[in-house]
Amino acid sequence: MTKLTRRNLMTAAAATGLAGVLGSRLALAADEPLGITLVVPSPIGDVGWGHALAAGLEPIKAAYGDKVKVTVLENIAEGPDADRIMNKTVADGNKFLVAGSFGYQNGALQIARRDPSVTVLHASGFQVAPNFSPFAAKYFQGTYLLGMAAAALSKTGKLGSVSAFAIPELITSINAFTLGAQAVKPDIEVSVVWVNSWFDPAREQEAAKALIAQKCDVIFSNAQDTPSVISACEEAGVYAFNLNSSMKKYAPKTYLGCISTDWSPFFKASVDAHLAGSFKGANAFLGVADKVVEVVDWNPDVPADVMTKIKEIEAKIADGSFSPFTGPIAKADGSEGVASGATMADAEIIAMNWHVKGVSTPLPK
């Protein structure tokens, strides 16, 4: 797998002209490998979102061998640079693009619309086209379960979340975390610090320390690509958990667990469909039942009776008989969010832009 960073890619572009960075603009012969490019805004590293996406492509390489060529472009900031780089990789003949950040949506969608022969998978978005599929994980299924565990372990009744951006995918994760905690302790409260970055170790660590100072004794690291929050919590003796890939080695004592994501089933099926000429763009919202989301590395400190309840709920989530977003659910302002007995549809969850009662931090305007 080839790894390129924004720095070396843009340096090469300046030196040779953008047309020469990834190869000459020639149509691929029928027997040439399928070029697959993953673009992510942060370093791949050994943990986090980018790491999970890159790992999801490994089974494709194993299955297809030299029939595919995978390139990873890391540290590509959202905005004009990302648009130019994504356009360049497609212009050079790569026909399968994984745009691995919410902020890549507009540029990636334009690529798909201009070239129907290209298949684009876009992380966390909402736009759909015949050759363009947004994909997102039902993290909320896992955060509900970890909310139950967090409430059982909390002594202060105050939980916290260091969160990247106030987009629906992360809002739903916080909301389900809160609802799961309230299922164990109804009066529990959740505070949120938005760092407005996918990768800012110093700011993430500061945010964690600020929540700990507010007596939050379980912290949810919500979409950080570094173990900064997890490490800060370990140092302070505070439980913490995260999304995407395990960070247990950074907090051997206070790690509560991980909502792990395995994108390989979705990526493999999408590549299969592209090669067969049968790909159809659709909104892929994937969870426990799809074997994309799984809670791993449970801390043994979770009381046995609570863990029994957690496993019961987990089984119901898997078979579809339980949803964290079944009413009655009140919004943070006290108004009705979900009526009693009603369950939010996936389309409503994907668009969620409000917090549930119990989240004490207002959403940024």
UniProtKB/TrEMBL annotation:
Pfam families: Bmp. Keywords: Signal. Residues 36-317 form the ABC transporter substrate-binding protein PnrA-like domain. The keyword Cell wall biogenesis/degradation does not apply. Residues 1-29 form the signal peptide. InterPro entries: ABC-Purine-Binding, Peripla_BP_I, PnrA-like, TAT_signal. This is BMP family ABC transporter substrate-binding protein. It comes from Rhizobium brockwellii. The lineage of its organism: Bacteria, Pseudomonadati, Pseudomonadota, Alphaproteobacteria, Hyphomicrobiales.
